[in-house]
C-alpha cells in the first residue's frame, strides 16, 4: 500500500494526543485563550502573529507540498515533515514586551515530553540522516573551531545536547576533539554506542555533573521545543569553562513573523515562492514551542551571564536525495541557495533581527 493511501501518522502518544485534541477542538473556532505567558520576561500580553485557522490552512498546504514532492516510501519518513510533534491547532503569538513567539494555548509540559518520547527514531532513518548530514555537520564543526578557546596541551572537550543522528559528534571526533553526546532517546543513543561514540542516555539535569568541564556545549536541535529552558540552562552554563562557548541553533522567530506579515499582503498566487521557502525550512505552521529572535535570545542568555559572540544565518539541512523526486531536489537546492544569497546580500548586523534567515546558529561566550 502506498503512503498516499494511508491516513496521517500522529506521533503523539495517546495521553498526549487527548491534550492536543482538546486544544484543536477549541482553538480553531474560538478566540485563543492564553494558557501561559512569556517564559523569558513573564509578560502575559501578546499580539497575534498567526491564527489557529491559518495554521490549519498551512498544515493542509504543507501536506500537499510534500505528497507532491516525495517518493512513495516503505517507511513513514515523508509524513514526519508535516506531522510534527507540535501537531495541534493553536495560535502563534508574540510577547508584547520582548517579542518572543510562542504557541498559545498549548498542552501541559508532561504531555509534550511524552509526545517526544513516543516519536519514532528507527535505525534505518537515523542512519540515512547521518549519512546525508555529514557535510552539513562538518561545516558546523569547522565554524565552531574558530571560537574554541586555544589550549596547547589538551583536546577541546565538547558536549552536544540532543545529538540526534550523531553527525556532529562524528565530525568533532574527526577533528580530534573529546566529544560527548547526551540524548534522552534510547534508539539514538543505542545507535551512537554501536558506532563506538560516547553517548549517554540522559538529560543534562539528570547527568549530575558539576564544575567547569567543557570548552563548548552545542544544542543543534530542539532548543525551541523545550517547554522551559531554565532548568537546562541552570545546569549547563556552570559546566562551561571561562572563555568557552554555548552554541544554540534556533528556527528564527523574527523570520516567521516577518514572513507572516508579508504573506498577508500578497495575492494568493504570489505567495508560492515564499511558502516554498518556508516549507523547505520547516517554518510553515511554525511547529515549535518558541520562536526566538537573535535580539530576544541574546537578552535571555544575558540573564545567565552569557554574552553574544556571533550569529550566523543558515537554512535547514537537505532532505536525503533518495526520498525526493528529482525536480523536488532541484527545487530545494534552488530555494535554500536563494535564502543564503538573500542573507549574504542584506549584510545584516550581528545585533539585527536577521529576518531573512530561516535558521540561526547563535554563539554565546561565558566570560
Ligand atoms: Zn516576553
From TrEMBL:
Task: Extract the ranges annotated as region (Disordered).
Answer: 1-35
Q: Which residues cross the membrane?
A: none
Top-level division of the source organism's lineage = Bacteria
- Family matches, as InterPro entries: SAM-dependent_MTases_sf (IPR029063)
Query: Which Gene3D superfamilies does the UniProt record give?
Result: Vaccinia Virus protein VP39
Point to the regions of Basic and acidic residues compositional bias: 18-33
Q: What is this protein called?
A: Class I SAM-dependent methyltransferase
Amino acid at each position: 500500500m502506498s503512503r498516499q493511501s494511508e491516513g496521517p501518522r500522529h506521533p503523539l502518544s495517546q495521553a498526549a494526543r487527548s491534550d492536543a485534541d482538546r486544544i484543536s477542538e477549541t482553538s480553531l473556532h474560538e478566540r485563543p485563550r492564553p494558557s501561559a505567558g512569556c517564559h523569558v520576561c513573564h509578560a502575559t500580553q501578546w499580539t497575534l502573529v498567526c491564527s489557529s485557522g491559518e495554521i490549519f490552512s498551512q498544515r493542509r498546504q504543507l501536506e500537499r507540498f510534500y505528497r507532491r514532492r516525495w517518493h512513495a516510501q516503505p517507511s513513514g519518513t515523508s509524513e514526519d515533515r508535516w506531522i510534527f510533534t507540535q501537531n495541534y491547532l493553536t495560535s502563534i503569538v508574540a510577547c508584547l514586551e520582548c517579542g518572543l513567539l510562542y504557541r498559545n494555548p498549548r498542552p501541559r509540559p508532561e504531555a509534550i515530553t511524552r509526545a517526544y518520547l513516543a516519536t519514532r527514531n528507527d535505525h534505518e532513518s537515523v542512519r540515512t540522516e547521518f549519512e546525508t548530514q555529514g557535510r552539513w555537520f562538518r561545516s558546523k564543526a569547522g565554524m565552531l573551531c574558530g571560537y574554541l578557546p586555544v589550549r596547547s596541551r589538551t583536546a577541546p572537550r565538547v558536549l552536544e545536547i540532543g545529538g540526534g543522528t550523531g553527525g556532529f559528534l562524528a565530525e568533532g571526533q574527526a577533528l580530534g576533539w573529546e566529544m560527548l553526546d547526551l540524548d534522552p532517546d534510547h534508539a539514538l543513543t543505542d545507535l551512537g554506542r554501536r558506532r563506538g561514540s560516547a553517548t549517554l542516555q540522559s538529560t543534562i539535569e539528570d547527568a549530575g555533573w558539576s564544575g567547569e568541564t567543557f570548552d563548548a556545549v552545542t544544542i543543534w536541535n530542539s532548543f525551541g521545543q523545550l517547554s522551559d529552558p531554565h532548568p537546562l540552562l541552570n545546569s549547563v552554563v556552570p559546566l562551561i569553562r571561562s572563555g568557552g562557548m554555548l552554541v544554540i541553533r534556533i528556527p528564527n522567530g523574527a523570520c516567521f513573523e516577518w514572513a507572516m506579515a508579508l504573506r498577508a499582503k500578497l495575492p494568493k498566487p504570489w505567495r508560492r515562492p515564499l511558502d516554498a521557502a518556508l516549507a523547505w525550512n520547516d517554518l510553515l505552521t511554525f511547529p515549535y514551542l518558541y520562536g526566538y529572535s537573535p535580539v530576544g535570545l541574546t537578552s535571555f542568555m544575558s540573564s545567565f551571564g552569557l554574552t553574544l559572540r556571533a550569529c550566523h544565518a543558515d537554512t535547514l539541512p537537505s532532505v536525503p536525495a533518495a526520498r525526493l523526486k528529482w525536480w523536488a531536489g532541484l527545487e530545494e537546492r534552488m530555494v535554500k541557495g536563494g535564502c543564503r544569497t538573500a542573507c549574504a546580500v542584506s549584510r545584516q548586523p550581528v545585533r539585527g533581527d536577521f529576518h531573512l534567515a530561516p535558521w540561526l546558529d547563535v554563539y554565546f561566550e561565558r566570560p
